[in-house]
Design brief:
- The protein has about 325 residues and is an all-alpha fold.
- It has helices at about 10-15, 20-25, 30-55, 80-110, 115-140, 145-170, 185-210, 225-255, 260-285, 290-310, and strands at about 180, 315.
């Protein structure tokens, strides 16, 4: 039978002052636990985008017509609000699951030995992005699904996915200085790829804001642009991303690059092909909701795959860090541990 350690008054005071440091003093997670925690935060960041899309595609964007309560008199959805109220409120509840996943990632990173400040900061960055996006989501509801705020809401979610993906990748690396695996010209090409991919995602939000899926059955403001013209621009940018990816793969082969950048580039190319097929099918079938939702999910995968190509261009060997070593002497803990 395991003996439960006594908790003294000093322990309680210490936990109140800095609970993360208190936990870190008593728990050392396995490196795989830290990596799984970071992956859980990334998965939830994607899930919140997909479920947010489901809210929009079912016309439930104003299912809860106010914020932070669902109605002026009720925190939760009521029977009178129907299915749309439950869908919108369910998406709000999922934000708490996302917060829990991010919190687990922060605690696991903070408790790892030796302490890795860079990893913990990535976790806290996710937390503040989630909080900012929750407030922005409330503003989206209060302004009646204004398409510009909806676009900003999605782009902030894209930023969250980026930080979560970087943290997940960094859990398998050391904190030593990165060593490039390819030349400067190849790195510049990848940065162009990242920039065009981000522009592709941003234009995709304009397509949504100008298109027929307003997010609610009532009259909702749309972006005053020709939807088909914006869609064609989106398609052109998609082809540019595909071309850049294809060119990058040949360049990496030509310079005899290591296997990891090649594999990540191949993965991106395959994701882009699948996303392209979904995009064209949804366009020629008058935007069925299921395919639009799949396209939003594909957008997240494209963004993650693009970032993985960028991160694969350098290495920080994990064996340079004694992840099971003794705790180093730390300076006084800051506000966020």
């Amino acid at each position: 039978m395991v003996r439960v350690p006594k908790v003294t008054r000093d322990d309680l005071a210490s936990a109140a002052r800095n609970p993360l440091a208190f936990i870190a003093d008593r728990w050392t997670p396995d490196p795989r636990t830290v990596r799984r925690a970071a992956l859980a935060a990334l998965v939830m960041a994607v899930a919140i985008v997909v479920t947010g899309g489901a809210v929009r595609l079912t016309g439930s964007g104003l299912g809860c017509p106010t914020w932070p309560k669902c109605t002026d008199d009720s925190l939760t959805a009521t029977r009178e609000m129907g299915v749309h109220g439950y869908i919108e409120f369910g998406n709000r509840l999922l934000t708490y699951v996302l917060c829990a996943a991010v919190g687990w990632a922060i605690i696991a990173a903070r408790s790892q030995k030796p302490y890795r400040r860079s990893l913990t900061r990535l976790g806290w960055t996710q937390f503040w992005v989630v909080m900012s996006n929750a407030v922005l989501g409330g503003i989206v509801v209060l302004v009646g699904l204004n398409p510009y705020t909806v676009a900003a809401h999605f782009m902030l979610s894209t930023a969250l996915i980026a930080v979560a993906a970087v943290m997940w990748h960094r859990t398998g690396e050391a904190d030593t200085a990165p060593r490039p695996l390819v030349g400067k010209a190849v790195g510049q090409l990848v940065w162009v790829l990242v920039g065009v991919t981000l522009l592709l995602i941003a234009v995709g939000t304009v397509v949504t804001g100008a298109g027929p899926h307003a997010g609610d059955s009532s009259e909702v403001e749309r972006i005053p642009l020709n939807w088909e013209n914006v869609t064609k621009l989106h398609a052109v940018l998609a082809w540019i991303v595909v071309t850049l990816t294809f060119a990058l793969w040949f360049v990496l082969k030509a310079v005899d690059a290591p296997r990891d950048p090649l594999n990540r580039t191949r993965d991106l190319f395959l994701v882009l092909l699948a996303q392209g097929v979904i995009g064209y099918v949804q366009y020629f079938t008058d935007l069925p909701e299921v395919l639009v939702g799949a396209h939003m999910f594909g957008s997240c995968l494209v963004w993650i795959a693009t970032l993985r190509v960028l991160l694969a261009l350098r290495e920080r060997p994990a064996d340079e860090v004694d992840v099971q070593g003794p705790t180093v002497t730390e300076t006084p803990v800051a506000a966020h541990g």
